[in-house]
């Protein structure tokens, strides 16, 4: 069941001899849960999976019109901060901290297998990313200044930690946010990149670490999310989650693969926890005070909704864009 928000943003584009009127609106969906949702995986326009607090996993196979809400047995108090789904039957979920768990289902969520467990003191998983249905990566907060990374090559059935000597080195107080499952993204068929926050905010690509023009210096500040259009063009968002209205240094763009960055002319209108590439020059970002969209490669952002969301994701096989947030809030970008 859909409920249309009353808020509709109109954007007027003036060109010689013409006026083009654009309207963006958000459809709120009835998820049937009050859990805080940070995990969001959109397989297609119809198949969507969510995950979050209190052991909650949800699935829709009809474009969000109805939802199957699951409490994972034995994990009723666990916060599943990220999810990666491959179809209506198969998904992998990530539980954040002490012990950190990764679980997998192949029967639509009816049963779950624990495929990874780590009881190391200080262990805190932040996000997963998959290149395809076989190859994936999970990233975790630094322990003794070493960024935790594990890989899978069989669709999440088994996970292999990197040798400790191969872990990237973080600065003191530098960490990662488990705010939307999008601080790590695939860059090419074999590479991933990720962004940090806290005392220092940087972009990590292979052995190269680049300081970001994102607010940093406190545990609540830094880059939260990165989206990738191609090997040259990325957009990074973040800010200070304790200052949701603050617009200073909350977004940066690169068109040369991270060598240099520039700031938007009109940036997102507050702290943002997730950014997603949609198509052509269009990107979308969300956070605690709403949603912004850009149609000019991040130069100018328009505030299209003041509804709070943690994550936004586009369909892997389709055009639909979904949002997820606290209180079981789920929404969809309407035409």
Please specify the SSE layout and strand pairing.
Layout: E1 2-15, E2 18-29, E3 37-42, E4 48-52, E5 56-60, E6 68-71, E7 80-85, E8 91-95, E9 100-105, E10 113-118, E11 125-130, E12 136-143, E13 146-152, E14 160-161, E15 174-175, E16 184-186, E17 192-195, E18 197-198, E19 202-205, E20 208-211, E21 221-228, E22 234-240, E23 251-254, E24 274-279, E25 282-287, E26 290-294, E27 302-305, E28 311-314, E29 321-324, E30 330-334
Antiparallel strand pairs: 1-2, 2-30, 3-4, 4-5, 5-6, 7-8, 8-9, 9-10, 11-12, 12-13, 13-14, 15-18, 16-17, 17-19, 19-20, 21-22, 22-23, 24-25, 25-26, 26-27, 28-29, 29-30
The Rg value, from CA coordinates, equals 19 Å
What's the number of helices? 0
- Low-pLDDT segments: 1-22
Helix content percent band: under 10%
Shape: globular
The total strand number stands at 30
What is the CATH top level name? Mainly Beta
Q: What count of structural domains?
A: 1
Enter the CATH topology name: Methylamine Dehydrogenase, Chain H
Share in β-strands: over 45%
| CATH homologous superfamily heading | YVTN repeat-like/Quinoprotein amine dehydrogenase
- What would you say the CATH architecture is? 7 Propeller
Spatial gap, N to C terminus: 17 Å
**Whole-number average pLDDT?**
92
Structural class, by secondary structure, is mainly beta
- What is the string of SSEs from the N terminus onward? EEEEEEEEEEEEEEEEEEEEEEEEEEEEEE
How would a textbook summarize the main sheet? 5 strands, antiparallel
Strand order of the largest sheet: 1-2-30-29-28
